[in-house]
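PROTEIN DESIGN WORKSHEET
SECTION A - STRUCTURE
LENGTH: 243
TOKENS:
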């Protein structure tokens, strides 16, 4: 049995007296520890798909199961990271990272220990007491990533998390994410085919709206990756699928 299973998921919104269908009988499986990247045309429903898995958007029909249990609404076993950093401006980097643990009722000493561990792993130990406005965009996104991982979710959902940073920072964050998410189940949405190739164990290509799975591609290349001949050939194949 697959770890995360989406079974014939459809999602429609009321619009102009009718229903706007965004997802249409979409089925997908993700194995435990797999890094799956979703690409597709702009506006096809990628973000809606992530919000549905997160439990923020109930599907119109179909069902989602995680470890055999039906997903009904938000749960701490799934954490969603957005393009926007969504940090609390009145909290320091350490306090932001510890926020989820605080909601879970962890003692202060324990949540600070976990937060400090993630600050160290993400190269932010020297900035633990800095506030978000004192950090660069890339550093803020590292804090957001650490906050998500600190609660040890079963599935990490990432919606265009590096779109707001410069190209050099984006490359650095891509490598860091693959490192710190080793063994973690990740469902990652991006508009960048190249980013998908650099990160994914498997790439899911969606159709135009309403989204269905058009094709799946395994990426059996070692990490860290660069765009060489094999990667370039795969990039071209994905581009042709999206035309």
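SECTION B - SEQUENCE
RESIDUE ASSIGNMENT:
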């Amino acid at each position: 049995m697959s770890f995360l299973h989406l079974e014939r998921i459809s999602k429609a919104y009321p619009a102009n007296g009718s229903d706007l269908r965004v997802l249409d009988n979409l089925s997908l499986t993700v194995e435990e520890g797999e890094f799956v990247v979703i690409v597709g045309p702009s506006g096809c429903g990628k973000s809606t798909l992530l919000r549905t898995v997160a439990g923020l958007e109930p599907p119109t029909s179909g069902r989602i199961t995680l470890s055999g249990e039906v997903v009904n609404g938000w749960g701490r076993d799934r954490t969603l990271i957005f393009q926007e950093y969504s940090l609390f401006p009145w909290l320091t980097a350490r306090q932001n990272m510890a926020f989820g643990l605080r909601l879970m009722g962890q003692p202060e000493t324990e949540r600070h220990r976990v937060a400090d561990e993630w600050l160290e792993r993400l190269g932010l130990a020297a900035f633990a007491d800095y506030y978000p406005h004192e950090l660069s965009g890339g550093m803020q996104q590292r804090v957001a990533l650490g906050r998500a991982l600190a609660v040890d979710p079963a599935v990490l959902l990432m919606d265009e998390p590096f779109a707001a940073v410069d190209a050099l920072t984006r490359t650095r964050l891509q490598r860091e994410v693959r490192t710190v998410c080793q063994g973690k189940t990740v469902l990652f949405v991006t508009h960048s085919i190249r980013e998908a190739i650099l990160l994914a164990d498997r790439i899911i290509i969606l159709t135009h709206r309403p989204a269905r799975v058009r094709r799946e591609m395994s990426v059996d290349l070692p990490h860290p990756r660069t765009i060489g001949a094999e990667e370039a050939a795969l990039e071209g194949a994905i581009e042709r699928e999206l035309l």
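SECTION C - NOTES
The chain has two domains: 1-77+154-236, 87-152.
The CA atoms of residues 234 and 240 lie 10 Å apart.
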